[in-house]
Write a structure and sequence with these properties.
With 109 residues, the chain is mostly helical. It has helices at 17-31, 35-49, 51-58, 62-68, 77-86. It has a domain at 37-89: Orthogonal Bundle (434 Repressor (Amino-terminal Domain)), CATH 1.10.260. The protein is globular. The model has no long low-confidence stretch (mean pLDDT 88).
Length: 109
């Protein structure tokens, strides 16, 4: 008798705005230099929120959104910005936190 498995879908577990925020923050951190990972995360969030409503809110087609936010999608920044806004998200940029783990100097007041 084999082990029965089911397909994991993160969208099923994104129930609250906090869930969505924490999920996206984790994906951005995990993505490193892979923007497709972040785009795919937006696709997961879009499915969790309702892709049809998102299409209406962005003025894009549902099929176009599925394609743009798929692992093979390559959306324009304009599309990403529209999706983020429609999902109630804000795109921000900040400098990376300085890694102080290598600082070996004694700091005096």
């Amino acid at each position: 008798m084999g082990i029965k498995t089911t397909r994991w879908d993160s969208a099923e577990f994104l129930k609250t705005e906090e869930d969505i925020q924490l999920y996206l923050e984790a994906c951005i951190e995990e993505a490193g230099d892979d923007p497709a990972f972040i785009v795919q995360a937006l696709g997961v969030i879009a499915r969790a929120k309702n892709m049809s409503q998102l299409a209406r809110d962005t003025g894009l087609t549902r099929e176009g959104l599925y394609k743009a936010l798929s692992p093979d999608g390559n959306p324009t920044f304009s599309t990403v910005a529209k999706v983020a806004k429609a999902l109630g998200l804000q795109i921000t940029v900040s400098a990376p936190l300085k890694d102080t783990s290598q600082d070996h100097f004694l700091r005096l007041p």
